[in-house]
Amino acid sequence: MFFHLNPLEYLMELYYSFSILIVLASFFAYLNLRFLRLPPAIGIMVIAMFSSIFLVIFGKFFPETVTGFSELLIGVDFTEVLMGAMLNFLLFAGAVHINIADLREQKLPVMLFSTVSVIISTFAVGLILYYVLPLLGFGMPLLYCLLFGALISPTDPVAVLSILKNANVPKSLETKVAGESLFNDGVAVVVFAVILNLTLGDSFDITFGNISWLLLKEAGGGFLLGAFLGFTASKAIKSVNDYIVSVLITLSVVMGGYLIAHAMHISGPLTMVAAGIIIGNYGKRTAMSDETKDYLNKFWELIDEIMNAVLFLFIGFELLLIPNILDYWLVGVVSIVVVLAARFLSIWVPTFLIRFKRKFSPGTIKILVWGGLRGGVSIALALSTGESEYRYILIAITYFVVVFSIVIQGLTVGKVAGRVLKEEGSE
C-alpha cells in the first residue's frame, strides 16, 4: 500500500494508520472497561475480533468498506512493527519491573524452559501435526510442520506479562513463567530461522557448530549489549538526578539500543530484556531518587498499557487478513490440542533435571503448562514465512492457537492456579 510513496508520504500514511489504531484502541478500551470488564488486553482483542466478524458480514453488502480497512492493516507490516519496534518497548517495560533476586532463585528452571523446552516443543508439535494433518485433509511437508512448531513454541512475553498482572499466582511461579517468556526469544528465533531457510531451499549450514554459533551470537550478544547499555544508562542517570532526563535516557536505550542490535545482527529483544533488568535493579537501587523511580515506573507502565492496547487490537483485526478462516476450524482445534500436549512434554521432561535440586509437583507443572501463553510474536513469525501454498494454513492455525491461548487460558490461569494450589495444600 505504501511502497509507491516517497519517504515523507510514507511517514504521513504510517502516522494516519497509527492514529486510526490508537483511536480504535482507546475506544475499545473504554467499551471493555465500561461493559465487559475483562483484563484490558483481552477485552480489546475480543472487541476487535467481534468487530472483524461484523466487518466480514457487512462486507458482503459493502465490500469496498472492508477492502479499505484490510488495506490499512496490510499497509502496516505487522511483523516489522511488532518485532522491530513495539516488542522492544514492551519487553523493556516488563523487564524493568522484574526483581533480579526473584529471578536468580529461579535461574535453573528459567534457563531450561527457555532453551530445552523450546526445542522439545518445536519437534513435538511438528512431528505430531505431520502425521495428524493428512487425516484431516490438510497434508503439509514435515519442514513446514516443524516451522509451525518453531513459531508457536516460544511463550509470548507480552501476553504472559499482561495476563500475569491480573492472575493470582504465587511469586515463584510468576517468576518462572515470566522469566521463561522473556528469555526464550533467542533460541526460538534461531530455530525458526534455520527451518525457514530450509523451507525456502536456501543453502544453509545446519551443523551443530554453526547453529551453536548463531545461538551464541544472537542470545549472548544481546545479553552483553543490553548489560552494557543498562550499566551505562544507570551511570548517566546517577550523574544528573533529573526525572525528565532519566526517562529520556531510558527511551534512548530502547530506541537506540535496537538500532545497534539490528546493525550487529544480534537479538534486539534480549538486548531490551537485559537492559531493563539492569536499570530496573542496579539503576533504581544506586542511581535514582524516589521521585525519579516513581516517574520512571509510571512512564513505562503507561507505555506498556498503550502498546499492549494497540498490539491486541492488531491481533483481533488480523482475522480480516485470513481468507475463508472457517475452512481451517477443525485443523485449528486439533492444533490447539497438539500445542498444549507439546507444552506439557516440554515442561515435564526438563523437570527431571530440575528435581536434582528442587522437586516440581504435578500441580506446578499444570500451572506452567496452562500459563504458557502464545501471542503477537507467533502471529508475526507466521506472517514472515513468505509466500507459499502453505502460508494461509500456517497463519490460520497460528491464529486459532493464539486466540485460544489469550482468551481461554488467559482468563482462567488465575482460577486454575488457585484450584491446583488449594488441592495440593489440602493433601
Q: Features of this protein?
A:
single chain; 427 residues; mainly alpha; Na+/H+ antiporter like fold; 2 domains
End-to-end separation in angstroms reads 61 Å
What is the string of SSEs from the N terminus onward? HHHHHHHHHHHHHHHHHHH
Q: Tally the structural domains.
A: 2
Class by alpha and beta content:
mainly alpha
Given as residue ranges, the uncertain stretches (5+ residues, pLDDT < 50) are none
Radius of gyration: 21 Å
What percentage of residues falls in helices of 4 or more residues?
A: over 70%
* Major sheet attributes: none
Mean pLDDT equals 86
CATH-level-2 architecture of the largest domain: Up-down Bundle
> What is the number of E strands?
0
**CATH fold topology of the largest domain:** Na+/H+ antiporter like fold
The CATH class assignment of the largest domain is Mainly Alpha
Strand content: under 5%
What form results from the Cα inertia axes? Answer: globular
Tally the helices: what do you get? Answer: 19
Polypeptide structure, described:
The structure is a single chain. With 427 residues, this protein is mainly alpha-helical. The chain has two domains: 7-74; 79-426, Na+/H+ antiporter like fold (Up-down Bundle), CATH 1.20.1530. Helix content is 79%, strand content 0%. It has helices spanning 7-36, 40-59, 63-75, 78-95, 100-105, 107-113, 116-132, 142-152, 157-164, 171-183, 185-199, 208-240, 243-264, 268-286, 290-317, 329-354, 362-370, 376-383, 391-426. α13 crosses α15. The termini are far apart. 45% of the residues are buried.
